[in-house]
Design brief:
single chain, mainly alpha, Arc Repressor Mutant, subunit A, Tetracycline Repressor, domain 2, 2 domains, 9 helices, elongated
């Protein structure tokens, strides 16, 4: 698994082969295929095993600050070469189930913060927090996937401002 992550970071997902992973790990190709049916499955398990997992618990602060941090963290994550290459391979292999597992913890953390905001009266009690979390994180993942525009802190600020304005129903 370590060999696969090292190689995907060095070669990118298109340059990664099972043969190269086997050579780097000092095992035969069949050994790898015995445990993982594809590059995507191998990289997914390696990523979960070796990358930092879980999200920091929310700290007490303003809703806007928490959401800006969540969006900025998502941007930081998808712009790391290792994460980028693993996820692009999973997209290429149409492994949406595995890709969702990598991104789900961040979405769940945002949903939890929005639920807390509901309890505190910061946003409407009848807000669909799942849709609101997707509204915040979806543009990050779209920009990452399409490489349509830069992912930066100013984008996070703008995105949070727009989403909070719509959630609060204000100008």
């Amino acid at each position: 698994m370590a060999a696969a992550l090292e190689l995907v970071e060095a070669l990118g997902h298109t340059g990664l082969t099972i043969e190269a992973v086997a050579a780097r790990a000092g095992v035969g190709k069949q050994t790898i295929y015995r445990w993982w049916p594809s590059k995507g499955a191998l990289l997914f398990e390696a990523f979960l095993e070796f990358e930092p997992g879980g999200q920091e618990p929310p700290r007490p602060s303003a809703l806007a600050d928490d959401l800006r941090r969540a969006v900025a963290d998502a941007i930081d994550e998808v712009t790391q070469r290792r994460f980028d290459q693993v996820c692009r391979l999973l997209v290429h292999e149409e492994r949406a189930d595995l890709l969702a597992l990598l991104m789900a913890p961040r979405r769940l953390a945002v949903e939890e913060r929005l639920r807390r905001a509901q309890l505190l009266g910061e946003i409407s009690a009848d807000l669909d927090v799942v849709a609101a979390a997707e509204l915040l994180l979806g543009p990050v993942y779209q920009r990452w996937l399409l490489r349509s525009a830069p992912l930066c802190d100013s984008f996070a600020d703008t995105l949070v401002e727009l989403v909070l304005r719509s959630l609060r129903g204000g100008p």
